[in-house]
Amino acid sequence: MQDTLTHRQLKSLVHVSTVINSSLDIETIFDLIIGEAISAVDAAGGGSIWVFDLQKQRLVAKSAHGLFYPQIFKSIELSSGESMTGMTFQAEKGLVFHNEEEIKQALDTLTPGNRTLLDESISNNFHFTSVISSPILLKGTCIGVITLDSFDKSLHFKKEDMQLLEAIAQQAAIALEKSNIYHQEKKTVQLLSRSIETQRNISNLVVNGEGIQSIIDYIYKTIGEHVFLFDEMGELTASACPAPVSVEMNSKLLRFVKQNDQSLNSPYSVFEITFGFENYQLIALPLQSKIKPLGTLIIISNDPIGEVGINALEHICTVLTLVLVKEQAVHETQQRLRNEFMTKILSGQVIDETLTKQAKNLQFDLNRNYIAVIVSIENKDKLQRGAISENVINNLLYMMNTNFLGKNLQGAALIDQNKLAALFSYPAKLQAVNPAGSIKELALHLQQEIDKTYSELDITIGIGRMKPNLAAAHESFKEAEKCTSFMKNYHFEERALSYTDLGIQRFILRNSEEELLDFVHEVIGPLIQYERARKGELLQTLLTYLRQNQNIKRTAVVLHVHTNTLNYRLKRIEEILSTDLTDGQQLFNIQLAGTIYHYIKR
């Protein structure tokens, strides 16, 4: 390239190289490059230097000379292939636009917005007569473009001008790389200094008793990027951001954390992630104690954070981990004390002076209303009965506290083998119409959430009745146990049941199965025997007739038979059972026996 340059051009190139390498300030370098290029090329009346922005995926004007309104011109952002500059970037080689017709064809590729900005930045008295444009190539990659414009019809760009511009572009690439290296090293030193200061400031926050949110806020103020802290269950516990988090960002983050569990030995991870049309760098740093993960710190940055910056974040994570370990130790101690207290209460132990003192320390009000709930957990695979890991049980306890108890601040949950127990607390003068009904809705929602995560588990939830004080809470607990026993032992479709819903089924719970079977056989035994011998439909007819409140027409519709057929069947049933279906007392016994048979039949 330089062998074909004239002596004058070589002198110009040496001068340009000396000038643009005289500064390490990136903005100054941009101005020097385009200024010296215009001075070195006689036909150039103006020009601009562009750099490709990786985040925007656009060519951005960094400096413009010879224009009336360079600030307006610098608002233009070009796609690859757009105008003379974009075409040069796309071709990755120097291009010459010899006349106004070729320039017009190139300018026709501008978007309407960019064309408006271009027209506003140049006086009407000025028109492009010819243009030369050269790519700035760094290690084989086009990182920008230098474009020179001629506004004088008597001056034309020569072949030697393009050669000189390409040589200047080579020098520009070297100068820009040198400036970037300098600033990266300078930034590294600043980051190291800031890292030490940041650790000291965060340590001071910890010493002064500030919580996790204060530390997250400080990290955000220091780096100016999105900061998120997720716990070991993948739930967001603290965050600090320059702007409100979009629904898309929130959902993508939650999905990312759920799908990218950090192992105990994994280092930080760096990902590229897109929100809307913007590209970001996502850095995930695991927070781990010696024995288990505690959560994940996530940084979302517009600009890439270098290795030194990430190392500084790792040091911050060390302090965060210490705080989390301390908080978790306090939480586990509180949970253990509450477990011990609830175990005593739910077992029916008399509330003496010691328990009263414990209740006060744990913020239990003896005179509030309480409802007990039991979540029974079993593997659906009978061969795996009882083989439920401690980690799964702890996760279920977490889900119960967050998704079930929720804002019931004076409520509590505990683990009892393969069983979870919870106490809901309500004011003494309760305003709610049906707390058991609302708890059942929460229970069904909890069951759905557990099914999503642990489809292999069989969950049954029993809900006791509300009791007037803490001393009577064990009675509600026993009722909840009866509900789970009923669902396990008898044919019952729902997997969440309140004691209030049991109704007549409580009769079943109070008697042995042998006594229940005796009663069933005494009342409807002959009809059962008849059915087994003849495989008829009389028993089904009777049960349907009772469920339809002895309404002939509705029963006939449900059974898809004529009313005459139904009347015949009912008369035959009366004969077999030697009973009168219009007798209230006999009808009650038959209905009760039918209900019991429905639940205990094998």
Could you walk me through the main structural features you see in this protein, from its secondary elements to its overall organization?
By secondary structure, this protein is α+β, with helices and mostly antiparallel strands. It has 4 domains: 2-182, GAF domain (Beta-Lactamase); 210-330, GAF domain (Beta-Lactamase, 2-Layer Sandwich), CATH 3.30.450.40; 351-504, Alpha-Beta Plaits (2-Layer Sandwich), CATH 3.30.70.270; 511-600, PucR C-terminal helix-turn-helix domain (Arc Repressor Mutant, subunit A, Orthogonal Bundle), CATH 1.10.10. It is built from 21 helices and 16 strands. The protein has helices at residues 7-20, 26-40, 70-73, 83-91, 100-107, 112-121, 159-207, 212-223, 247-259, 307-346, 353-361, 390-405, 435-453, 473-489, 499-502, 506-509, 513-534, 538-547, 552-559, 563-577, 584-600, and strands at 46-53, 58-65, 77-78, 95-97, 130-138, 141-150, 226-231, 236-240, 269-275, 278-288, 293-301, 369-379, 412-415, 419-426, 457-463, 496-498. The strands form 3 sheets. A 6-stranded antiparallel sheet has the order 3-2-1-6-5-4, with helices on both faces. It has a 5-stranded antiparallel sheet with strand order 8-7-11-10-9, sandwiched between helices. A hairpin with a 4-residue loop joins strand 1 (46-53) and strand 2 (58-65). The chain is elongated and about 125 Å long. The N and C termini lie far apart (95 Å).
Q: Helical percent range?
A: 40-55%
Output the CATH class name of the largest domain: Alpha Beta
How much of the sequence lies in strands comes to 15-25%
Widest β-sheet, arrangement of strands: 3-2-1-6-5-4
**End-to-end span in angstroms?**
95 Å
Largest sheet: 6 strands, antiparallel
Contiguous runs where pLDDT drops below 50 for at least 5 residues: none
CATH architecture of the largest domain: 2-Layer Sandwich
Q: Count structural domains.
A: 4
Task: Work out the helix count.
Answer: 21
CATH topology of the largest domain: Beta-Lactamase
Instruction: Tell me the overall shape.
Output: elongated
- Report the mean per-residue pLDDT as an integer: 80
Helix/strand/pairing category: alpha+beta
CA radius of gyration is: 40 Å
Q: Report the count of strand segments.
A: 16
In CATH, what is the homologous superfamily of the largest domain? GAF domain
